[in-house]
Amino acid sequence: MTPAPVTLVNEGGASPLVLLCEHASNQVPAEHGNLGLPDPELRRHIAWDIGAAALARRLSALLDAPLFLGGVSRLVIDLNRPPGSPTSIPEVSEATAIPGNAGITPAERARRAAAWFAPFDAAVARCLDARAAAGRQAVVVGVHSFTPVYLGVPRPWQAGILYGEARRFGTALVAALRAEPGLTVGDNEPYRIEAEMDWTVPRHGDARGLDAALLEVRQDLLGEAAGIEAWAQRLARALRDALSSPPRPA
Q1: Is the pLDDT score of 246 beyond 80?
Q2: Which residues of 148-231 form beta strands (DSSP E)?
Q3: Most exposed residue of 31, 52, 144, 148, measured as fewest CB within 10 angstroms of its CB?
Q4: Taking Cα atoms as reference points, which of 216, 219, 239 lies closest to residue 160?
Q5: Full-prediction pTM beyond 0.85?
Q6: DSSP string for residues in 64-115
Q7: In this structure, what CATH number is given to the domain that contains residue 165?
């Protein structure tokens, strides 16, 4: 069965937060034949953000926030990358070659963007447009997970907050999480927002003048329901605290 490009949860949520989980799914449509990869590779981080969808759903419920879940693996097309960028449809992810992405034509790239990227992007844009038209606050938050070790290098953080122009909101989130006991929290770590390589924060947040950030949780902490619940509660507290900080200057 072909997955839907986007699933919207809690569309009428009252929270100012608008949640995105761009890497929610590791599904590869049958027409792509697993992109030439064995099944175990599609269960790895290269194909999706492990635990992120369950975490995002729980945050949506706790915060009464709408949530947009991506429907296909980021190896088909990455919903948090500008179409046409080198990592939008990667030929290599981490150190793994993706045979089904090698040498694909511009027409195939455009077809994937039209089938998967554009519907997800348009659904988010419609939500944000509607909030703007109604005079409702919107704060864009992506929900992600990251690997404990990347290309052999251990990562010391349990979580990280990534942000671009929304420094007040981003640093407020970092401070709120660092107030939780026993955590090492990355400030624009383990990644950084780059306009030419990222989409959600630059496009849906910064370009609209909205507060926006990505939440990153180390995926080994999201392997069980108890861990997901603990992180959902922790992040919900941090998000509420950050929302209550002084608003972004006009």
Answers
A1: no
A2: 149-150, 153-154, 159-162, 185-187, 212-218
A3: 31
A4: 216
A5: yes
A6: T--EEEE-S-TTT--TTS-TTSTTTS-SEETTEE-GGGTT--HHHHHHHIII
A7: 3.40.630.40
